[in-house]
Amino acid sequence: MKNRIDNLFQKKEENILSIFLTAGYPNINDTLSIIKILDTTDVDLLEIGIPFSDPIADGPIIQQSSMKALNNGMTLKVLFEQLQSLRTITQLPVLLMGYLNSVMQYGVEEFYKSCHEVGIDGVILPDLPLNEFDNTHKALAEKYDIKVALIISPETATHRIKLIDLKSSGFLYLVSSNSTTGNFTAIKQNSYKHLTEITSLALKNKILIGFGIKGQQEFEEACSVANGAIMGSSFIQLLSTSSNFEKDIPEFISIIKNSKS
Amino acid sequence: MTTNNYNVNEQGYYGEYGGAYIPEILFNNVEELKNNYLEIIESDSFKKEFDELLKNYVGRPTPLYHAKNLSSQFHTNIFLKREDLNHTGAHKINNALGQILLAKRLGKKRIIAETGAGQHGVATATACALMNLECIVYMGEVDIKRQAPNVARMKMLGAKVIPATSGSKTLKDATNEAIRDWINHTETTHYIIGSVVGPHPYPDMVTRFQSVISKEMKNQLLEQVGKENPEFVIACVGGGSNAAGAFYHYLNNENVKLIGVEAAGKGIQTGHTAATLTIGKPGIIHGSKTYLMQNEDGQIIEPYSISAGLDYPGIGPIHSFLHDVKRANYMHVTDKEALEAALNLTQKEGIIPALESSHALAVLTKLNFKKTDTVVVNLSGRGDKDLTTYINYLNQNDYEK
After folding, report:
1. Of the candidates B376, B377, B383, which has an alpha carbon nearest to the alpha carbon of residue B343?
2. Domain B59-89+211-397, CATH among 3.40.50.1100, 3.40.50.300, 3.40.50.1580, 1.10.10.60
3. A106 touches chain B (CB under 8 A)
């Protein structure tokens, strides 16, 4: 069977919506129940965040969700146990996103192997340097058919974007502005235009825009310059306030996707 | 001259430690530093300006003081490298000034820093006042409360002190916040890291700025005892910048025993400790691969030490390497041992040391010296900031001697 991320992009190249959720948040057993609800919506892709005590690329919203998840007892081992039944509830492509120290302590090969066993399709590791990707991760990820989506920013030089594109698999994660996650003020209206310089390059990978995608308007704007967008902090915000996931999650997604589905 | 095997390699590693584990957003900033730092700090104009400031502003060279009373107590020859006599009261100013001159040459307008005890924050605020640059210091909310005088100093110097309210609200969290600030202000901002930690080239750059300590020690020992090399160099280690500076020019001289001293806190088995090399294992913290205190899942464990400057769950990658290859020996002392050592120095030599430096002094009771040995202890900072802690200890123990 082909990797689910590749399958997705083969069928669909526009208005891709990826949703990020923190594993074990708001309660330890919510990971799969939230995914189950998301599976009934028009979401295209899922990213599960591995909570880490010191997430340097994350703003306050995801930091707090990680802290709560850790206090709930979430660990990478627990997460993989929960994900044993992932493929009985959804066929959406699913990535794990986390910091390198979690992977290192779990064991790098063990990590990719476990991803493969539970049906994870890709990973995003924001603090993985390219040299370490080349030396260690690339071969292991390929061995277990796990895509490694690499990250570029608006300030990444063109030659480096091309280099990262060559190494990246699944898709390219384009950070909307130089900011931590959930910094909604860093993005001014209609400010995705400058990203067309990047998204119009002849690149091998599809591009998803992430960081600071607050709502329907930002999603639409991001989709006008790239293949789709990733929403994390605003979805976490919803989870932190909602008392009825079955009702609120589908509503949230349908507002984002609006006439776009 | 032998070649130095203990230096960072071109990829930014000391053995397997170091590197640059940073989000792509910081790539340009770190790359700019990496590509320029050596050329800038080795240029004549930089050296001239830096050396002049160290001499006339900081007050270098700091004295190497033959502590005769301490020497007779331990039946050997003990010298104190008086970094406590630097302007602002610790070795931190050496690095802050070096980095601010570098930041100016890179055209940065805004300076950020993290601080634990406040010594690096004060040093950075001082350098920014001198160079007329905007200064923002991140400090854990807990540390802001326990180091009030240094917070007042920073504010008086014109710095904005922002409390870090995440995690344990101490140095590690202040460092996280500073990195997040940097991610959000890459173009304008230089981050002055206060220790030999962080992504390459910071560990090497900070080591070089602090290496003036061992450079002076060599000259001063030659003058005072007729030889450049002592038998022992002893320094405390949190992140490890004063130790890296005190060890640097002796790394290739294997006859010089290098002793780093970590904070054991209430004891290494108590769960209230900051002895990273003793209870930690390799991982990634603040952009660098190094030993760190963590649980099985890789979550970073909150450190504890009575000394806010040693209260850090990681350690500079150079020390992880020197530890593994056994070029340096890392010991640890408890809060109580450090307090006793501070009182001992105060009463024997009339010098009130910082709590951090007291950890280095405390191993004098644990090592075996020959009568003919020359022992240098790096007295990295002065104890003014720790007076409340000392006074409380004195009152509790009804101390009289």
Report:
1. B383
2. 3.40.50.1100
3. yes
